[in-house]
Model the fold of this input.
Amino acid sequence: MEEASSALTTGQYLLAAALCHDALKLARIQNDFGRMKRICMPMLEAQRYLRQSALDKGIIHTISKSTDIPESPGDECFFFAPNFVGADALRFRNAANDAGIAPFVLTREPTTSKNQWPIVGVAERVVRVRIDPPENDTPNPKWFSAAAEALGDQAIQDALEASQPDDPPAWIVDDFLDLLDACPEHEKFMMALADACANAVGHPVPTRKRRRGLIDDPYSF
Done:
């Protein structure tokens, strides 16, 4: 986190976000929920800059076939459409991040019978929300930002609804971590994760194995 703070101070936002992400996972291994809570805010700040920077470019690349992907993608918005799935977009974002590029990426699935677009995010688990398509089916930055907000809001709801009343607070933290990579730019999600971490501080480490339902998702994997 010292490296992350230095990167944040010097404007290396992608590096700062990556270091925070790694620190978050390390702190979870050590059951250090207080430290996890403190990591969430600098991670939120780094991701906020990356998100806004991409939106400010005003460019939405719609990717419906492999040749639509620019040879040298930039820190812009990328909207993956059928026949791509959420896992494809996740691989693209991870590869771009490894190359020092910070695209803002969303994925949609085929239009529903109610003429809505399912927006999907893939992490350890899948998040999906159905929203109205943009005018003329052409995403603009305002719609793209609203779609990402809706996806993150759904991720919070999914994380909270995954648990049972007698579940240890540590499992609630894990329910959020399962969805983190599906919406890393979502500020309210990071704040909800921080709250979950705060609630887990001081509780005994669970001794029973955490169980969650299986994922049956033919579109995203």
Observations:
- Residues 2-200 form one domain.
- Residues 33-56 form the longest helix (24 residues).
- Confidence is low (pLDDT under 50) at residues 214-221.
